[in-house]
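Input record (one chain):
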Amino acid sequence: MYKTSLLFGVAAAALSFALSTTSFADDAAEIKAKAEDYTKSQVAQWVADADVVAALSAANASNAAFDQGKIDALDKQWRAEVGAAAHPLIDQVMASSASTKAKSWCSGAGGVVTEVIIMDNKGLNVGICDATSDYWQGDEPKYQNTFPKGANTVFVDEVEQDSSTQKFQVQSSMTVVDPASGQPIGVVTVGLDAEGLMMQ
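The corresponding structure, as predicted from the sequence alone:
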């Protein structure tokens, strides 16, 4: 009897999980629409913060002379630092004022925001919640489908299931502009929890 109940419970849990994953797969279009709305409303307000604008402007000035060779070298350094005992480049970004803002957005969004990457006009990390796998995002869709296309551009990527948490998430990115000039100065990418979005 105990084995039967246990097996029934496991089967019920598996069915429930299967239904939930199917539901999110079917609702991908709605999740992406909600992600775009969240980005245009909430995230747009965050990145208009004077501290974020100042951090991006400073990074753009500091990195203005970087050519592709320099960017590749820094990206290689960052990748080598991930998981290493010493990680000065990662520490530098994690200690930035932009990262302080990013962490506050992650922690203050009620679990909806799982990741934040604030990047400069070249696609280099300026602010993050947690260490990313790479330093340069400029060769990825999150940057290529936003910054080069100008102000107010939003790009929502595909809904994906996290292999470790089994939760569905979506990345939404937008071009960041200087409120004073209206000129693009960077990009912000947010990782959004699909279930949290659907409850908004």
